[in-house]
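**Backbone shape codes:**
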Amino acid sequence: PICESWSVYLGIKITTKDVAMMMAQMKDTRIKFIQNKLNDLKEKPSFLIDNDIQEVYKIYNELQSETLWPKERFVLDLNRANLFYDVGNYKRFIELLDTLSIDVKKYPKQESFYGILKAFYFEIKNEWSNAKIELENIYESTNKYHYKFQASNNIARIERFLGNEVSAKSYYEKAYEILKQKPNAKYFPIVIHNLLIAYARSKKTQEA
């Protein structure tokens, strides 16, 4: 009935499928809004973050109460897991990622995002070799620059933590080369900073 009334009022034919597509686009827009909001939070002073985090949680809860397609819910839960990690709620992060592991193979386009989070999962458990394997798989398999960059940068961070300075430098250099191909103003200072530290630790001051 709703579709029919819209069709008469607008003078066009709107089907149930059209409405479903519009609803899906609205949900997708809201999920992207949350992703952008989370990125913005990382640029803000800490005293501003609490209220923003509450706003993001509120939107997540609203989306969870809606009827979502399985793929939409999976993407939403990936972003929820990312939020839990970012705010340090590792218990909820681990629980949610364990749940998502059951269905990740159904959504190949989300495997790299899941893999980045799974590497964090292993880091929390001090399973460094598993974290590196997860990130190396992403680095080798993905054609998405931002995931390839994150994988190489995170491997470098792990290698530096483990005291493998030469390997860390190598992966920081890879991250830098990836970023040069697709520049991102937000990440460039971070990569340059990491690379300078790596060169300093390896005593390659001329390269620095």
